[in-house]
Inverse folding.
């Protein structure tokens, strides 16, 4: 049975191979190790193996786990990759370094207000609901251009890219291609897309950040 540290190296090797195979520059893709639902003791071996970029879905969960880990390991970069409620904006800005899930004006404004209060300017991704699934968060593709302008020009957010989670029952490539197209016309160079089952495909469509959890940490227990 492989360890999390060994699986981490396998994922990193796969990313490097995909970068080469798709003509991407080596190191063009940032691996976000998604540690949601895993405890600090599960994360430590991955930190000890050199990984420093992690993703969490819930603000409260991250607040419990990461202060102690930050004391023991330097240069941790923590990404919020799950849905955010406006009443958690204060804690999100204090806890995370990058936000991937800006999906409505209320969240954008709440984040900007807290960043100004705390003296922090966090890079942000706009979450796009590429499959237009009613149960899933994100801006509809047709509304992204206007929302990006609003976030940048009216709210003043540092929008650096777009993020998506394709429908589980559809080929991810078409959704990655759509996200890449929308980003290009908005002058956005960062693409947060690709998870454990499809991160190599995402590299081929220009992903700059892939969010990989179970392929590193193993299957999750949601009970």
């Amino acid at each position: 049975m492989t360890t999390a540290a060994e699986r981490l190296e396998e994922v990193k090797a796969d990313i490097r191979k995909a970068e080469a195979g798709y003509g991407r520059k080596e190191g063009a893709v940032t691996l976000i190790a998604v540690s949601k639902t895993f405890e600090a003791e599960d994360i430590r071996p991955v930190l000890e193996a050199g990984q420093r970029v992690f993703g969490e879905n819930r603000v409260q969960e991250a607040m419990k786990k990461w202060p102690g880990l930050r004391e023991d390991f330097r240069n941790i970069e923590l990404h919020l990759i799950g849905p955010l409620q406006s009443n958690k904006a204060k804690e999100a800005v204090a806890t995370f370094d990058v936000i991937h899930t800006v999906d409505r004006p209320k969240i954008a404004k709440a984040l900007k207000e807290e960043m100004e209060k705390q003296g922090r300017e966090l890079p942000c991704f706009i979450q796009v609901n590429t499959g237009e699934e009613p149960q899933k968060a994100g801006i509809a593709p047709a509304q992204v251009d206007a929302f990006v302008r609003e976030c940048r020009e009216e709210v003043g957010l540092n929008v650096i890219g777009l993020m998506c989670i394709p429908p589980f029952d559809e080929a991810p490539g078409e959704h990655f291609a759509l996200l890449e197209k929308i980003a290009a016309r908005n002058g956005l160079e960062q693409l947060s897309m690709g998870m454990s089952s499809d991160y190599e495909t995402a590299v081929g469509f220009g992903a700059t950040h892939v969010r990989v959890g179970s392929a590193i940490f193993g299957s999750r227990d949601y009970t």
